[in-house]
Design goal:
Helices cover about 75% and strands about 0% of the residues. Helix 4 crosses helix 7 (about 150-175), helix 4 (about 95-105) runs antiparallel to helix 11 and helix 5 (about 105-120) packs across helix 6 (about 125-140). It is built from twelve helices and no strands. It is mainly α.
Length: about 290
């Protein structure tokens, strides 16, 4: 196997992306305590849109915005609105560590959904890993105990499902549409759609939240650039596991900002889910190497 000398830079970019996205989520959690979930989703879109426009213009990709598959972009924007509003709802009601733990079921869902939607083949070992990961979700939620089997916990699972479906759609859109078009239309349509849905219950923006809104837009945009660079520079199977560093960010922000800590069951479930995800990544790498020795 040939080692990719850019893997280290890819890992650094991934760690930077995860840190930026975690700070963005911290900002969303703050905003979700003052505004309705759909309004938070709209704020997320509008705050990043000017930076996305600047990026599209700077990269000379304006012309590519119009040669796109409109139906798929509209569907992906709908998934983005549902994902953001559900995640904002959950963040207002549960610690970031718990939300992140449940959201990490997304890689398992992507693998499972790739079978009916992308016609990919998933062997028995990967199906077993998916089943074990879902068991980890049950450990965290504890339907018969005092876990996070609440509307907030279910909202995170809905958000994770939306994210998984959106990620699969990126695989389809990438064949015909530019990266700039995918980011621009997702952010733009999310801002417009969530804004329209939030309008009837729109709460006036507080002046003291201006810096949080600006921070959400900046960290979200820079995080998107960093994660794109991570997968461009490094092998996906090498850089992807470092997405799980978000748990450390969530734990730190929960402790420093909100003075809360998850219980032992959440840590146990997180371990099961992360281990399942890492196994799937490893199996994918073995599969790729078998096809391209």
């Amino acid at each position: 196997m040939t080692r990719n000398p850019s893997n280290l830079r890819g890992i650094v970019a991934m760690l930077l992306a995860v840190g930026l996205f975690s700070l963005m989520d911290g900002g969303l959690k703050h905003l979700a305590s003052h505004y309705p979930p759909m309004q938070v989703a709209a704020i997320r879109g509008w705050s990043a849109l000017p930076l996305v426009l600047l990026w599209v213009w700077a990269t000379g990709a304006v012309a590519t915005l119009w040669r796109v598959r409109w139906g798929l972009h509209l569907l992906r924007a709908g998934l983005s609105i549902a994902m953001l509003s559900c995640f904002a709802y959950a963040l207002a009601r549960m610690p970031m560590t718990g939300a992140y733990t449940l959201f990490f079921v997304a890689p398992l869902l992507i693998t499972a959904l790739s079978v009916p939607l992308l016609r990919e083949k998933v062997g028995p070992r990967r199906w077993a890993a998916i089943a074990v990961g879902l068991l980890g979700v049950l450990v965290v939620m504890r339907p018969t105990g005092e876990g996070v089997f609440t509307w907030a916990g279910l909202a995170v699972l809905v958000a994770a499902t939306g994210y998984a479906l959106s990620a699969i759609m990126v695989s389809v859109l990438h064949r015909t549409d530019s990266s700039q078009a995918m980011v621009f239309w997702m952010i733009g349509m999310t801002a417009l759609g969530a804004g329209a849905l939030a309008l009837p219950g729109w709460e006036p923006l507080r002046a003291e939240d201006a810096w949080v809104i600006a921070g959400v837009g900046l960290t979200g945009f820079l995080g998107q650039v960093a994660i794109t660079e991570a997968f461009r520079l490094g092998e996906a199977s090498v850089v992807a596991p470092f997405e799980y560093s978000a748990l450390a960010w969530g734990l730190g922000l929960d402790l420093l900002v909100w003075q809360v800590l998850p219980d032992a069951w959440t840590f146990a479930g997180a371990g099961i889910i992360v281990a399942s995800g890492l196994y799937l990544i490893r199996r994918e790498r073995v599969h790729v190497e078998a096809e391209h020795p």
